[in-house]
Write a structure and sequence with these properties.
The chain has 6 helices and 44 strands. It has 723 residues and is mainly β. It has a 22-stranded antiparallel β-barrel. It has a 4-stranded antiparallel β-sheet with strand order 3-2-5-6, with no helix packed on it. The chain has a 4-stranded mixed β-sheet with strand order 10-14-15-13. Strand 21 and strand 22 form a beta hairpin. The radius of gyration is 28 Å and the shape is globular.
Length: 723
């Protein structure tokens, strides 16, 4: 009897073991046929799943006999469902799954700016992202700089700081450029003295994504992000090598030549971007002064990527740019100066920086990141009878720890930021040394499927210390909430504190060319402190073949004791400035057709000494509209229009509102693209509506520039894709 019982148990155990099945699969990209590490498999009926390893392979064991629906998925790819019956006819077979990559508005976007590399839809902090497709379109319109890319975004206004040199800064939600940060790959490469030419020296052709945070972001990257930040994400090598050249010529005497190469092997990758940009002096309708200066610029940006093993990876890059920008009286620029025609501005600059990033994965949920950048910027600004030259050296280092769990994410880290300006006599008194050291912690907690909170805290120490913080310490909290009301409707609300250390760099000092500036004593000057809040509602729904996305944002920021330039000296004024307003973005996608509409209302006021005044050069109303028809990898055509409303000028007059329109046609083949583009085709120019300067042509005093000066510009180009 005992023998029969043991035999029965053995048979039952063998039957149960046979009923537990194992599935082996490999997940690949449908187009490139490359494996997709991190892809997931999930069986809802069993509440079981598995994740693909570095070779894209998935092994899921202990699957009972039966019929099940399997769901394969991966970020930015369309999921795939398969129904299988277990046991399989061939249990040892490796199932091959090919996922189709999403594109455009359908693609999931992974955001890097918050350091967690989460999907955009799951982050409580409001982040906007321009994906690769939009950057490619902007790159054909204006391949030499990111001035257009930023200026056409809602809530951002590009402000020209020189009437003859085309230098410019950007403002977020009505606040001066000194309240914004411009990052590249999460590192501050364009701050302080080097920020004055930054928009003109960054090409969109080397970028794969641009991320915006509007509103207080000081908790993320320290002081200076009172209005928000822009993070430029560089391209990285992919499985397939790439070799692309772009040639572009425009009607304003401009020429752009650039090349991009990328290749990746098992352990090493590389990217190299290089460009040459030339512009002849351009004066539309034979005006006296250059609307576009004579410019020559060379840039090169090589990077090496190392993939040591499954746990360790990193990259190192170098960025070098030389530019000579010569604007002013057209006769002077052409070499025909005389006793009357004498005015000019010449900017000669050299920029060199290194970037280093290293990541170590501790386990599947946690990792450590280190990044560092060292920058050198040398700029010489020459005007008649005046030369200003200074050299800036800066560095930024950060070490952080990231934990990603099912319900919570943590980021904690420390950073060190140094900024040193060396100006020789007679401007030696403008030299300074500023060091900032910080520690930060950030947590994202998902309470339920419909509610998540992201909170953060930063402590910064500054040397030298400002007058209103004797120990140089600033504590910066922030909190954001995400509400997923249903599948179509979400909302974010949040806010935080910010600060800005006093420096001599802002739009006004750049416009003055730093002439006659008085030195700034940080110990006797207040740091600017702020608080801000914003909230939005986002509706996203598909009706038939039409995808509808509507986003409505509300914002408010207040800056106490702002630092302003009065005469030739910077002073902390009693009072505050505040900005409030709304942004509306509407997108409709119907197969190959895309329709975009944007509206920004900004109300920025200065409340100084009990008097409230509207801030100058801040249009209250801006409207943008864009219609695009695109057949993927074959054809693209688009039309866009913009309205910029009236704005108060520094002389007390009001700048008129104006409309601009653009057109783009692009034909794509496998190895060759041709495009033609027109900007401001109705030739709206401030110089058509009156003189842009007072005084004599010999010694002009330029008015505020609030509208285009170059007028209608057409460009035609080719993109050659050899790999």
């Amino acid at each position: 009897m005992k023998y029969h019982l043991l035999l029965l148990l053995a048979i039952m155990a063998g039957h149960i073991a046979c009923a537990q099945n194992t599935l082996r699969a490999i997940v690949k990209d449908d187009k490139t046929k490359q494996p997709l590490p991190g892809a997931t498999l999930y069986i809802a009926d069993l509440k079981k799943g598995a994740t693909a390893d570095t070779s894209g392979r998935i092994i899921l064991s202990n699957i009972p006999d039966g019929k099940y629906e399997l769901k394969f998925s991966f970020i930015s790819y369309f999921g795939q469902d398969k129904t299988l019956v277990f046991p399989l006819k061939n249990p040892d077979e490796v199932l091959e799954i090919y996922l189709e990559p999403q594109s455009g508005e359908l693609a999931e976007v992974v955001v890097q700016t918050t350091r967690t590399n989460q999907n955009l839809a799951d982050i409580p902090t409001r982040v906007e992202a321009l994906p690769q497709e939009e950057l490619d379109e902007k790159g054909t319109m204006r391949p030499g700089d990111i001035k257009m890319l930023l200026g056409e975004s809602t809530g951002i206004n590009v402000q020209q700081t020189s009437a003859v040199s085309s230098t410019a800064n950007f403002r977020i939600q009505g606040l001066d450029s000194r309240y914004t940060q411009l990052l590249q790959d999460g590192m501050p490469l364009y701050q302080g003295f080097s920020g004055g030419l930054s928009l003109m020296q960054v090409s969109p052709l080397n970028l794969k994504q641009v991320e915006f945070i509007k509103g207080s972001a000081s908790t993320l990257y320290g002081g200076g992000a009172i209005a928000g930040l822009v993070n430029l994400i560089s391209k990285t090598p992919q499985a397939q090598p790439e070799l692309t050249f772009l040639l572009n010529q425009n009607s304003a005497r401009g020429l752009d030549v650039s090349g991009y190469y990328a290749e990746k092997s098992k352990h090493v990758g590389t990217t190299i971007f290089t460009s040459y940009n030339y512009n002849g002096a351009y004066t539309p309708s034979h005006t006296d002064f250059t609307a576009v200066p004579r410019t020559q610029r060379f840039s090169i940006n090589p990077k090496v990527f190392l993939y040591m093993d499954d746990k360790n990876s990193g990259w190192f890059g170098v960025n070098a740019t030389y530019e000579d920008r010569f604007g002013g009286d057209r006769q002077v620029v052409d070499g025909n100066a005389d006793n009357i025609h004498q005015y000019f501005e010449r900017n000669e600059s050299y920029r060199f920086s290194t970037q280093l990033s290293f990541t170590h994965k501790i386990d599947s949920a946690s990792l450590v990141n280190f990044k560092n950048t060292i920058g050198y910027f040398d700029r010489r600004l020459v005007q008649p009878g005046y030369t200003f030259r200074a050299k800036q050296t800066s560095s930024y280092s950060e070490l952080n720890y990231v934990y990603s769990g099912k319900k919570t994410n943590w980021v904690a880290g420390v950073d060190l930021w140094s900024d040193h300006l060396n100006a020789p006599d007679p401007f030696a008194q403008l030299s300074y040394d500023l060091d900032t050291y910080g520690a930060f912690v950030q947590n994202t907690y998902r309470f339920t499927k419909w509610f998540a909170v992201e909170s953060g805290l930063r402590l910064d120490g500054n040397s030298p210390a400002p007058m209103n913080a004797g120990n140089g310490l600033f504590l910066l909290p922030r909190i954001n909430g995400l509400f997923k009301i249903n599948e179509q409707l979400t909302s974010r609300i949040g806010g935080g504190l910010g600060y800005k250390m006093p420096t001599i760099f802002n739009d006004d000092s750049e416009e003055k060319g730093y002439q006659y500036l008085q030195p700034l004593n940080v110990n006797n000057t207040d740091a600017e402190r702020s608080y801000g809040a914003n909230g939005d509602v986002n509706y996203r729904h598909t009706i038939g073949d039409v995808l509808i996305n509507i986003n409505q944002l509300f914002f408010y920021t207040k800056v106490n004791h702002p630092l302003i330039l009065q005469g030739n000296a910077f002073v902390s004024v009693p009072g505050y400035l505040d900005t409030k307003g709304t942004e509306t973005n509407i997108k409709l996608l119907m197969d190959e057709l895309g329709i975009y509409f944007g509206y920004t209302h900004t109300d920025t006021k200065q409340h100084f000494n009990g008097i409230s005044l509207t801030q100058t050069l801040t249009p209250k109303n801006k409207i943008s509209a864009d219609v695009t028809y695109e057949i993927e990898n074959s054809f693209r055509a688009g039309a866009e229009g913009f309205y910029t409303g009236e704005q108060l000028l520094g002389d007390g007059t009001t700048g008129r509102g104006y409309y601009t329109f653009g057109l783009l046609i692009q034909k794509m083949w496998k190895h060759f693209d041709v495009f033609i583009n027109g900007e401001n085709i109705t030739d709206q120019r401030q110089s058509k509506w009156g003189s842009i300067y007072t005084g004599s042509i010999t010694n002009p005093a330029f008015k505020d520039i609030y509208a285009p000066l170059d007028g209608a510009v057409f460009n035609v180009g080719v993109k050659i894709k050899l790999l």
